[in-house]
Amino acid sequence: MSSSRSPWSKRSLTAQAMGHVDPITKAVVPPIHVATTYIRDEDNAYSSGYVYGRPDNATIREAEGVLAMLEEAEAGALLFSSGMAAATAVFQALNPGDHIVASKVMYWALRNWLMTEAVRWGLAVDFVETDDLDALRAVVVPGRTKLLWVETPSNPLWTITDIAAVAEIAHAAGARLAVDSTTASPVHTRPLNLGADIVMHAATKVLNGHSDVVAGALAGAKADEFWAKVASIRKMQGAILGPFEAYLLMRGMRTLHVRTAAQAKSALELAQRFSAHPKVARVLYPGLPQHPGHDIAARQMEGGFGYMLSIQVTGGEAAAISTAAKVRLWKRATSLGGVESLVEHRASIEGPGTPCPSDLLRLSTGIEDVEDLYRDLDEALRVS
Ligand SMILES: *Cc1c(COP(=O)(O)O)cnc(C)c1O
C-alpha cells in the first residue's frame, strides 16, 4: 500500500500503524492474534483468508502493511523470524548453479552463510566492492548471474553503494537486485524507488528500535514468480515471525521517524566532533564530506545519513578495546539501531579474515543526550 493513495504522510501513517482501529471494541491498538487455526465455512471454504498459523497471521499482516507503505512496495512485505531468515529465504529461492554477487563489506554473519551454506546449496558466490561499479561489471555474468546483493551503508565501514547504478547493471545482465537497507532504514533510503527488486531489513535493529525483538523483513517491487517463491519458502520452512514479536515491532515502528531523525542528528554531530579529536585517527560516516561515499549518499539518502558510524583510534587495537572497556553511558554490546547507544570492537567479533580494521570501534547512536554521549566517549578515549 502506497502513501500516494492516502492524504497523510508516511510519518503520520506510521505513527498510527495505518490508523487501524479494532472494529468490535474501537481500541486504537489492534489486538494480538495468537490463534494457530481458524474455523472453516460450512461450504468448506476459508472466507476469512486465514487457514493456519504457520503461513500467515492478522497481526503479521498489520505490521507488514506499515512496512510495505514505508517502502512503497507494490508486492507488499513479508516478516520473518530474523533478519538472517529473511535474507537466506531470498538466496534459497535461487536454483543450484546460479551465480550471485555480493558486497565484500557486509553484515558478517550473512557473509559467512554465503561462503558456507550458500555454496553447499550449489550457489556460486563472488564478493566485490559494490561501490566500485567497474569491478562489479567485471564479475557479473549476463545470463548466469541471477542476484546482486548489496548492503548500503555497509557494516562496519559504512561504504555507500549507488543503488540506481547497480540496479542498471543487474537488470542489463538479467539479474535481480536485493538491498540490505537495515542501517539506512526506510526513512533515509527507499531502494525499490531506486530500481532494486527486493529490500531487506533486520527489523531487529532500527525498525523495532528497542532491542527487544529479533525480526526480519523483505519488501518487493513486483509480485512476480520469484517473490511468490520467497513467500512459499517462508511458509514451508516456518520462518514467519511470531504474533507477539510482530505486535512489538509494530509498536516500535510507530516512533520510527522521531527516533531516526534524532539518532541521525546525534550521529552527525558525534562524527563531526570526533573528527577533530586528538585520539581519533579517522571517523567513518557517510554524512562527512570526506567520506568516499558522501556524494552518492547525499543523492540517495534523505533526511540524514543514519545512526551508524565508526571511529579508528590513534592507539591501535589495544586502545580501541580499552576505550570500549572504559565507557560508562555507551553500552558495550553487539547489535545496533536501538534507543540505547552501543559501542563494539568489531574485529574481535568478526575474527580472522575480517575486512574490518583492528583499531575500529563501531558506534550505534541512540537517543540519549548527545552531549553525554560525546563526554563519555571522549573521557574513555583520553585515558586509553
Ligand atoms: C543484524 C543484521 C542482520 C541480521 O539480522 P538478525 O535479525 O540478527 O538475523 C543483517 N544485516 C544487517 C545489516 C544487520 O545489521
From TrEMBL:
Keywords: Pyridoxal phosphate. Its cofactor is pyridoxal 5'-phosphate. One of its GO terms (molecular function) is pyridoxal phosphate binding. GO terms for biological process: cysteine biosynthetic process via cystathionine; transsulfuration. GO terms for cellular component: cytoplasm. The modification N6-(pyridoxal phosphate)lysine is found at residue 205. Belongs to the trans-sulfuration enzymes family. This is Cystathionine gamma-synthase. It comes from Microvirga vignae.
